[in-house]
Amino acid sequence: MSTIDLETARRVAKLARIRVPDADLPRLADQLSGIVTFMEQLNEVDVDGIEPMTSVTPMRLKRRADGVTDGDMQDKILSNAPDAREGFFAVPKVVE
Fold first, then answer.
1. How many whole angstroms from its chain centre is CA 78?
2. 2, 8, 12, 37: which sits with the fewest CB atoms below 10 Å from its CB?
3. pLDDT in tens, 11-61
4. What is the spatial distance between Cα 58 and Cα 92, in angstroms, rounded to a whole number?
């Protein structure tokens, strides 16, 4: 079991750019020690031969054919624009 001392907790707080009053450093050190202890417990789990997961529920993304379309839909696309001029989307000027 790893324990985090007060100086390490103070350094972690400094590196994280958070201000921790000296009175709260023992509590922070205990919390960090708990996190490290939990990570050590996770490292003890045998995960050989187990596939990594991106989600706890099996999901497959819908696939579509990767085919070239004819394009040439400028009028159809610009019909959704709130303001279109001369074949382009018109947006308000934001830089002076």
1. 33
2. 2
3. 999 999 999 999 999 999 999 999 999 999 999 999 899 888 877 787 788
4. 44
Tell which residue, 34, 32, 10, has the closest CA to residue 20. Answer: 10
The CA distance from 54 to 66, in Å, is 24
Map out the domains of the chain as residue ranges: 6-43
Rounded mean pLDDT of the chain?
Answer: 90
Within 13 Å of residue 19, how many CA atoms lie on the same side as its CB? 1
SS3 84: strand
Residue 35, Cα to own-chain centre: how many angstroms?
Answer: 20
Q: Which two tokens stand for residue 69?
A: 């379309």
